[in-house]
Amino acid sequence: MRYELYYWTGIQGRGEYVRLALEDAGADYIDVAREEGDEVMMPFFQGARPGSLPFAPPFLKAGRLVIAQTAAILFYLGPRLKLVPAAESAQLYAHQVQLTLSDFVVEIHDTHHPIASGDYYEDQRDAAEKRSEDFRKHRLPKFLGYFEHVLERGGKKYALRSHSYVDLSLFQLMSGLDYAFPKAMKRLNRRMPLLRDLQKRIADRPNIAAYLASERRLAFNKNGIFRHYAELDDR
Questions:
Q1: What is the pLDDT of residue 139?
Q2: Please, which contacts does 153-160 make with residues 24 or more away whose CB atoms are closer than 8 Å?
Q3: What CATH number matches the domain at 3-80, 3.40.50.150, 3.40.50.1110, 3.40.50.670, 3.40.30.10?
């Protein structure tokens, strides 16, 4: 099957979690908006295309299915791309960890847009600095500590004792945080050796290494979830 991925062009955001899974598995897929423009998604949002009604990208078209929400997409793709164990308990656990990661991503976004997503960062900079200080001191170590514990319980190499889409998502999370909060992440290095080891191993996987070196991989920028503003990082 050829999968169709829909996500905003030029934005390094939630669609990347899906893209990493497709790339790692060597799946046949097309990044539709990148080839045809963002307007190609509008009929889906307007309910003019068959299938479920997505609220926002990313969403995936797989045959007649339209699946939105990153965690739901990966829950669907995991077994089909052999990126999750066959046991139902493992698949549910993978979904649970992915949902927790999604919760964390919302908090990361809110460090630079704590008041209103539709307003410019510059219009809420003071609130962003206050929110980011709490994030660095409390939320960042709390969530990363949880994911470190997940790896420890999974045998210290993988989240689920074998390679899965959760590992790919943790790689993306760590990479994005390194871009957005380089000083804060450096201060936490000694507390997350398993996450750091996983990050390196995922980057070295053949399909991922090729993807990261290609033009298909967008650089982190100030249009996505992970944004670097020096005043929001450790001082």
A1: 98
A2: 156/194, 157/194, 157/197, 157/198, 157/201, 158/198, 159/94, 159/97, 160/84, 160/85, 160/90, 160/93, 160/94
A3: 3.40.30.10
